[in-house]
C-alpha cells in the first residue's frame, strides 16, 4: 500500500511516517520501480507501535535509540518492560523518560505554587503583583 493508505491504517500522517523514517525509528520501506514507498502490514504494525509508545510519553529520540527492538513489541504487543539490564542497549529508556517526566512535574508544581501565591483569592490579602492584575481581569 502507498504511504497515504499506510498512514491512515496506522493512525498517523504520511509526513509523520517520513519523519519516523528519517529519524531511524522506522526502517525505510521498499520502493516501487517509480520510487514510491510501498508499505506492508508489518510496516503498519510497526508504525502503530511507534504511535503507542509516543502516546505513552516517549520521544522520537528515545525510540531512535531502540528502533531495532520495536519489532519485539510488534510481535508481542502485551509485552511489559522488565527490569533495566545495563548490558542491553536501550533497556533504560523508559526509566529515563519516567525520571524526566517526574522532574518536569516537580518543576511545573513549583511554578504553579509560585503563581498561586501571587494570585488574589478574593480576600484582598494577596500581595500586589502582575499576576494579581491578570487574575483581576479574569473576574
TrEMBL record:
All copies of domain HTH merR-type, residue ranges: 1-69
Annotated protein name in UniProt: MerR family transcriptional regulator
Region annotation Disordered: where it falls in the sequence: 116-139
Organism this protein belongs to: Streptomyces phaeochromogenes
InterPro entries attached to this UniProt entry: DNA-bd_dom_put_sf (IPR009061), MerR-type_HTH_dom (IPR000551), MerR_fam (IPR047057)
PANTHER family (UniProt xref): HTH MERR-TYPE DOMAIN-CONTAINING PROTEIN (PTHR30204:SF93), REDOX-CYCLING DRUG-SENSING TRANSCRIPTIONAL ACTIVATOR SOXR (PTHR30204)
Biased composition annotated in UniProt, kind: Low complexity: 122-133
Pfam families attached to this UniProt entry: MerR_1
Keyword DNA-binding part of the UniProt annotation: yes
Keywords of the record: DNA-binding
Amino acid at each position: 500500500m502507498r504511504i497515504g493508505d499506510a498512514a491512515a491504517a496506522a493512525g498517523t500522517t504520511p509526513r509523520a511516517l517520513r519523519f519516523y523514517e528519517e529519524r531511524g525509528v522506522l526502517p525505510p520501506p521498499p520502493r516501487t520501480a517509480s520510487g514510491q514507498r510501498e508499505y506492508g502490514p508489518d510496516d503498519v504494525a510497526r508504525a502503530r507501535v511507534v504511535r503507542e509508545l509516543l502516546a505513552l510519553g516517549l520521544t522520537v529520540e528515545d525510540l531512535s535509540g531502540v528502533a531495532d527492538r520495536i519489532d519485539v513489541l510488534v510481535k508481542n504487543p502485551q509485552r511489559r518492560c522488565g527490569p533495566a539490564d545495563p548490558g542491553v542497549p536501550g533497556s533504560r529508556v523508559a526509566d529515563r523518560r519516567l525520571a524526566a517526566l517526574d522532574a518536569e512535574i516537580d518543576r511545573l508544581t513549583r511554578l504553579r505554587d509560585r503563581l498561586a501565591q501571587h494570585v488574589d483569592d478574593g480576600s484582598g490579602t494577596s500581595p500586589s503583583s502582575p499576576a494579581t492584575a491578570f487574575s483581576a481581569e479574569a473576574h
